[in-house]
Backbone:
């Protein structure tokens, strides 16, 4: 059961290695990455993965909005090369709270179900003001209760055996089922589901990192996110340590 990820990024050099290594831990075999006008040291970070064949890099010098166009470019060029593809961002960490790998869960999905919608679990800054040289999943463990509107969003994992189209970063135009087996449509998944699969979404990180990210528009279009997007996910209602079970193995991989 081969799982790939398609993602577009801009100036994410500080996070790419952790994000790739984390997803290798949970069963991802291949990454199709689209660079959108990065000005940092992304290529030196990615070079070992490109040389080993784990990453395929495409330079995507397009005006925004260009995210779903990158996704569609990947679909058109690589349909059939993986069993499944997840469409994620570099601040999103996909895993199963119950199983060792995501493909282990996907292998149980009936063949007539073409995609699975995976709920966001949004994390705030955990009170941190500045960037630290430590894994994202270790730095940010506090969040608000899961009922906040930002958690209504999902991201798709889609079967790659036949061609399809995608016109929203959060939804592919195919029959989409939740991890528990409920049909769903559109970018939102309500009620949320977190037992079988989840995506930890570290959309703000520290205040410094949030402000730095707002200097650019988003590949999906539009200008900087409003302050309300930052404030909505800040809070310490829950210390969420679900992703921490991967931390020791992740640090070992990052040290190599």
Residues:
């Amino acid at each position: 059961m081969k799982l790939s990820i398609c993602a577009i990024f801009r100036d994410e050099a500080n996070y790419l290695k952790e994000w790739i290594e984390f997803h290798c831990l949970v069963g991802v075999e291949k990454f199709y990455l689209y660079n959108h006008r990065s000005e940092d040291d992304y290529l030196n970070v990615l070079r070992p993965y490109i040389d080993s064949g784990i990453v395929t890099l495409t330079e995507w010098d397009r005006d925004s909005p260009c995210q779903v166009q990158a996704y569609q470019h990947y679909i058109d060029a690589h349909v059939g090369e993986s069993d499944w593809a997840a469409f994620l961002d570099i601040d999103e960490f996909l895993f199963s709270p119950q199983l060792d790998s995501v493909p282990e869960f996907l292998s149980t999905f009936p063949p007539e179900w073409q995609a699975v919608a995976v709920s966001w679990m949004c994390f705030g800054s955990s009170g941190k003001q500045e960037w630290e040289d430590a894994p994202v999943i270790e730095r940010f463990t506090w969040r608000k209760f899961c009922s906040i509107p930002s958690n209504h969003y999902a991201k798709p994992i889609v079967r790659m055996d036949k061609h399809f189209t995608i016109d929203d970063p959060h939804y592919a135009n195919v029959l989409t089922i939740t991890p528990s087996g409920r049909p769903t449509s559109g970018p939102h998944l309500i009620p949320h589901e977190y037992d079988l699969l989840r995506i930890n979404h570290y959309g703000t990180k520290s205040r410094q990192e949030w402000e730095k990210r707002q200097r650019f528009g988003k590949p999906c279009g539009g200008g900087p996110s409003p302050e309300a997007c930052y404030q909505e996910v800040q809070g310490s209602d829950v210390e969420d340590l679900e992703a921490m079970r991967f931390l020791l193995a992740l640090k070992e991989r990052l040290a190599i």
